[in-house]
Design goal:
Blueprint (H helix, E strand, L loop, with lengths): L1 E6 L5 H15 L4 H20 L6 E9 L2 E9 L11 H8 L9 H8 L4 E6 L2 E7 L4 H25 L2 H40 L8 H29 L9 H4 L14 H7 L7 H4 L3 H15 L6 H23 L2 H15 L2 H31 L5 H18 L6 H11 L4 H14 L2 H17 L9 H13 L7 H13 L10 H29 L5 H5 L1
Antiparallel strand pairs: 1-2, 2-3, 3-5, 4-5
Helix pairs in contact: 1-2, 2-4, 3-17, 5-13, 5-21, 6-11, 6-12, 6-13, 6-20, 7-14, 7-17, 7-18, 7-19, 7-21, 14-15, 14-18, 14-21, 15-16, 15-21, 16-17, 16-21, 17-21, 18-19, 18-20, 18-21, 19-20
């Protein structure tokens, strides 16, 4: 752990801080992109701390490492920073709707937009920023891809050259227990993660009427693209039907799995009636997805209606949300090991047909996500009356950035810059819509949930009746609304959807091998949808500089 202090009376303390941070983080082998982002966030935090610091005080910078990654702590004695004691990025973004471009504090916006990586507190008159430099999410992705390649090679070798009883023994006593323990751990957080994510999200919309027509239009457009994404996902699945690529595999799939129910009897009326639970505990005990979502929406909407207690309760929900997201992050660090186990089981017990079907599902997912790019272009052309080719040409940098980072939240600073500098969108729109979109607009996740759930149902021989269509669509919409922005969050949401349609959660093991790669494509769809909606609303509200857009 490294720590140093800087005299804030010196005019050159900022350059000294930056040099110190660069040197210390480089020693810890932080990659270049994470280093640049950390420097930007630390610079804005230092400026805020200095702005509210007491006279004759010093600035302390501490760099520490733990299981969760690398952190930079910046602190100095001073008054509370009032802008950071609000309700988070959405409330701040809402305020920017009534602000002129000159009034917007860009540095504060950067800190708020990266709320996931920046924590602020003031204890005993000391301002403290804790900034997560973090292990690059790409390093986890690379490790997962390495595990995929190695598992395929070893699985093929064992399938071809090792006796079947040896493979069965390895699966039964080593790899199946590993996967089962992982799935059990994932089941622990499934309900709480979705519940607290949706409560936290909904509770921030208590002042929706104050957002004005810009905010309402942005939210309506996000809901429209989400519904289109679900339709595209289902449509592409039924056109390609990747579940048939591997033939009849249900017999092999169930040899090492729990008993699979192959039918789900449900009516639309019973689905609607059962949305409202009889008590507040049963939805979590029975893992009833729609009831959990209903409770989350109800409590989230009620949080802002309890007067002086609203902030206390909201902070409590946000704390629980952060707690379970951290638990999820810790659990998903085991994904490379679980991936290896799942691929070994699949290759040695079901053969290459299952693997062919898995890659068929991945291809279907990518094609559906590509169709969403066409949808964005059509919406820009028909509603925005703008040239969509200009949009994609100017947003190419943002798409590549999202693909490499695999995180909508991490992509926000670049996306905001593209909106203002390249597309000519007023900050009054993009400073609100981009952070909001990173929270609730998950078109890529919606596509994936539709494709993956139908694929796994097909592979496990589960018939999904048409009467469940409405409840499935509602569930996907709400899951996309509350999808946590952590690695492996899509697996959590998929687990809930599978449980709802009668497919065992262990089925996730079939697609976990390609999930990390697909996550990159999903992020591109998520962020491109955010920017496309921002552009359309800006054009509708005459807050778009056409000359900049066409230049």
């Amino acid at each position: 752990m490294a720590e140093t202090r800087f005299d804030m009376k010196k005019q050159d303390y900022m350059s000294l801080c930056k040099a110190y941070l660069t040197e210390e983080l480089s020693k810890r082998k932080v990659n270049q992109k994470a280093l640049l982002k950390a420097e930007l966030l630390c610079e804005e935090a230092i400026l805020k701390v200095a702005q509210y610091a007491r006279e004759d005080t010093t600035l302390s910078i501490r760099i520490r490492r733990s299981i969760g990654g690398t952190y930079v702590e910046i602190q100095a004695k001073g008054e509370e920073i009032p802008e950071l004691f609000g309700d988070g990025n959405i409330s701040y973004a809402a305020k920017t709707l009534e602000s002129s471009e000159e009034d917007i504090d860009t540095g504060l916006l950067i800190l708020v937009a990266n709320e996931k990586h920046v924590k602020y507190s003031n204890n005993n008159g000391t301002n403290l920023f804790k900034i997560t430099v973090g292990k690059s999410e790409q390093s986890t992705t690379r490790l997962t891809l390495y595990a995929l390649a190695v598992s395929i090679v070893i699985g093929v070798i064992f399938k071809l050259f090792v006796p079947e009883f040896v493979n069965t023994g390895l699966c039964t006593y080593i790899f199946v227990p590993i996967r089962t323990m992982f799935m059990n751990a994932l089941k622990i957080v499934v309900g709480p993660v979705v519940f607290f994510s949706i409560v936290t999200c909904i509770s921030q919309f208590t002042n929706l009427s104050e957002l004005g027509k810009i905010g309402v239009k942005v939210i309506c457009m996000y809901m429209l693209t989400t519904l289109i994404a679900i339709v595209v996902g289902f449509g592409m699945f039924f056109i390609i039907n990747p579940g048939m690529w591997g033939g009849a595999l249900i017999g092999n799939l169930t040899t090492l799995e729990p008993t699979v129910s192959t039918g789900v009897a449900v009516s639309i009326l019973s689905t609607i009636i059962n949305i409202i639970p009889a008590n507040i505990v049963r939805p979590f005990l029975e893992s009833d997805t729609l009831q959990i979502i209903f409770l989350a929406i109800l409590l989230g909407a009620a949080v802002g209606m309890i007067g002086s207690y609203s902030k206390i309760v909201r902070d409590l929900f946000e704390a629980f949300n952060e707690l379970f997201l951290t638990v999820t992050t810790l659990i998903t660090k085991l994904i490379p090991l679980v991936l290896f186990s799942s691929m070994f089981i699949m290759l040695t017990t079901t053969g290459f047909e299952t693997m062919k079907a898995m890659f068929g599902m991945a291809l279907t997912d990518v094609l559906a996500l590509s169709c969403m790019m066409v949808v964005y272009g059509i919406l820009i052309l028909l509603i925005g009356r703008l040239n969509p080719f200009t949009f994609f040409r100017k947003n190419l940098r943002g798409m590549l950035n999202a693909f490499s980072l695999s995180s909508s939240s991490a992509s926000m600073p670049v996306n905001i810059k593209i909106c203002t500098d390249d597309l000519g969108i007023s900050p009054k729109v993009c400073n609100f819509s981009i952070p909001l979109g990173a929270t609730i607009n998950m078109d890529g996740v919606s596509v994936h949930l539709a494709v993956a759930s139908m694929f796994l149902a097909k592979m496990y021989g589960v018939e999904v009746p048409h009467s469940m269509a409405l409840s499935i669509i509602i569930t996907i919409v709400m899951l996309s609304l509350g999808t946590p922005s952590v690695t492996g969050a899509s697996l959590v949401c998929l687990g809930i959807l599978l449980d709802m349609i009668g497919v065992p959660m262990e089925a996730i093991g079939l697609i976990i091998g390609v999930d990390s790669l697909l996550d990159m494509f999903r992020t591109v769809s998520n962020t491109t949808g955010d920017i496309a909606v921002t552009l359309i609303v800006a054009k509708m509200e005459k807050l778009l500089d056409i000359d900049v857009y066409k230049s």
